[in-house]
C-alpha cells in the first residue's frame, strides 16, 4: 500500500510504500520545527495517522516524539477510526505494539523523574543515617577486578579480587 506523508508546509511531502510502523518511525526522524501537524494518508487520501504539533514546551507526563526547546514539540501519534481496514493485520499489530511501547516508556520516564525528585529530598532520618555512615568510615571503597599480575604491575594492595579465571588471589 502506498502512503502519502504531508508535513503541512507544502515542502518535503512524499509518497512511500514502507509498512505504516516503519513509515511513522521515519517521519519522526524527519520532523523539523514547522509548527504544523504531520499527517499520513492512504491511497484514497483518507487520513490514517496524525503527529500533532503543540506550540508549548511539554509538561511532565506528556508523550514527546520530538521537542524543539521551549518553542514546541510533537506529541503522540493519533490513529483514526477505520485505519486498520486499509492496512494488513501484521502492520496493525506492529503499530499497536509500538504505541504501547511508547506509552510504557513515557510512564517509566515519569516514574523515574518522580523517584529522582523524591530521592533528592533531605530528611532528618537521611541526615542521621549519613552521619552514622561517616562515623563508620564513609562510603565503602570501590571493588576492582584485577589479577595477581595486574596488582603487582600497579603496586596496589588491599583490593578485592573477583576474577577466578586468570590467576586469582583468594
SSE topology sketch:
Elements lengths: L2 E4 L7 E3 L3 H11 L7 E4 L5 E5 L1 E2 L11 E2 L5 E2 L3 E2 L9 H31 L4 H12 L12 H7 L16
Antiparallel strand pairs: 1-2, 1-3, 3-4, 4-8, 5-7, 6-7
Main features:
elongated; five-stranded antiparallel sheet; 14% strand; alpha+beta; 2 domains; three-stranded antiparallel sheet; 4 helices; 8 strands; 170 residues; 36% helix
Q: What does this entry show, briefly?
A:
This protein is an alpha+beta fold and 170 residues long. It has helices at residues 20-30, 89-119, 124-135, 148-154; strands at residues 3-6, 14-16, 38-41, 47-51, 53-54, 66-67, 73-74, 78-79.
Overall mean pLDDT stands at 78
Main sheet specs: 5 strands, antiparallel
Order of helices and strands: EEHEEEEEEHHH
Strand content: 5-15%
- Give the radius of gyration: 27 Å
Helix content: 25-40%
The number of E-state strands comes to: 8
Number of helical elements: 4
Number of domains: 2
Biggest sheet: strand arrangement? 2-1-3-4-8
Distance between the termini: 65 Å
Give the structural class: alpha+beta
Shape label? elongated
Task: List segments where confidence is low: pLDDT < 50 over at least 5 consecutive residues.
Answer: none
Protein described:
The chain is α+β, with helices and mostly antiparallel strands. It has two domains: 117 residues, no CATH class; 31 residues, no CATH class. The strands form two sheets. The protein has a five-stranded antiparallel beta sheet, with helices on one face. It is elongated. The termini are far apart. The mean pLDDT is 78.
Amino acid at each position: 500500500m502506498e502512503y502519502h506523508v504531508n508535513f503541512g508546509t507544502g515542502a518535503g511531502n512524499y509518497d512511500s510504500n514502507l509498512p505504516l510502523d516503519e513509515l511513522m518511525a521515519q517521519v519522526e526522524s524527519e520532523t523539523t520545527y514547522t509548527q504544523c501537524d504531520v499527517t499520513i494518508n492512504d491511497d484514497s487520501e483518507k487520513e490514517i495517522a496524525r503527529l500533532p504539533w503543540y506550540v508549548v514546551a511539554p509538561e511532565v507526563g506528556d508523550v514527546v516524539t520530538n521537542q524543539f526547546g521551549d518553542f514546541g514539540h510533537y506529541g503522540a501519534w493519533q490513529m483514526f477510526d477505520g485505519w486498520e481496514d486499509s492496512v494488513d493485520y501484521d502492520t496493525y499489530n506492529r503499530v499497536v505494539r509500538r504505541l504501547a511501547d511508547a506509552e510504557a516508556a513515557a510512564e517509566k520516564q515519569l516514574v523515574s523523574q518522580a523517584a529522582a525528585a523524591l530521592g533528592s529530598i533531605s530528611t532528618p532520618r537521611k541526615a542521621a543515617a549519613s552521619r552514622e555512615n561517616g562515623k563508620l568510615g564513609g562510603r565503602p571503597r570501590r571493588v576492582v577486578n584485577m589479577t595477581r599480575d595486574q596488582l603487582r604491575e600497579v603496586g596496589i594492595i588491599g583490593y578485592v579480587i573477583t576474577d577466578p579465571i586468570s590467576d586469582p588471589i583468594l
